[in-house]
Design brief:
The chain has 225 residues and is mostly helical. 82% of the residues lie in helices and 0% in strands.
């Protein structure tokens, strides 16, 4: 099986399971709604205070829900003793990695869009005009997070303390993604274009590429161990 066909098969499997059970997505949406509800009391009552604190709180919510999603990245395979089967798939194991990354990005971006909508409703903000510029930022930030998160989810999949170790290992590494993503979100919500501070966009793109290449190259060795 070639690389892209294997990635597509893994993606279809994960999305089919997610659509059938909906357990993960429903839990993420409930958790997201709870976070936004709590944020409503953390920020001040004025629109200026909300817009000032929104980027950081949005990405804080994205990362918390993303960590939960990453913890489930190999849950189905682990619970059904299928991790060994992943190792034995014919073809490049990098295809398994790519399929997992794309599937994780799909679920996480869907959750992020729901968080943004709930944020706008709870705080009475019209975020629609910024949507066209906000979505690319969400996608780029999510790609970097899921790219490195999938790798570490595979590393910790066999460990008993994986729920504790995964955040401890992952959070320091995603800071280079969070900083530019948060800053670009702040610019977008302020009505600026993504090109207003292009160095942040370049930094985010560079780390996305670095994490993707790192994950692709090391994932086969992680699965073999």
């Amino acid at each position: 099986m070639n690389f892209l066909a294997l990635a597509a098969e893994i993606l279809r499997k994960d999305l089919r399971i997610e659509a059938r059970s909906r357990e993960g997505l429903n839990t993420l949406l409930f958790f997201s709604a709870l976070l936004v509800f709590l944020f409503r009391f953390a920020l001040g009552p004025t629109e200026a205070q909300v817009r000032q604190g929104a980027p950081g709180l949005l990405w804080f919510a994205f990362i918390l829900t993303g960590l939960w999603g990453m913890a489930r990245a190999f849950q189905i395979e682990r619970e059904n003793d299928c991790l060994e089967a992943l190792r034995l798939v014919p073809g490049d194991l990098g295809g398994v990695y790519l399929g997992k990354v794309v599937g994780g990005c799909c679920v996480m971006v869907a959750t992020e869009l729901a968080i943004v909508v709930m944020f706008g409703l709870f705080f009475h903000l019209d975020l629609w005009p910024a949507g066209g510029r906000l979505v690319p930022v969400l996608i780029l930030g999510t790609v970097g997070f899921v790219a490195i998160g999938t790798l570490f989810a595979a590393i910790t999949a066999h460990l008993k303390a994986r729920e504790v170790l995964l955040p401890l290992l992952l959070l320091p590494l995603v800071i280079p993604v969070l900083l530019p993503a948060s800053r670009l979100t702040e610019l977008v919500l302020a009505g600026e274009s993504l090109g207003a501070e292009p160095h942040w966009l370049r930094l985010l793109l560079v780390f996305d590429l670095v994490f993707l290449v790192l994950g692709y190259l090391t994932f086969p060795f992680v699965m073999e161990d």
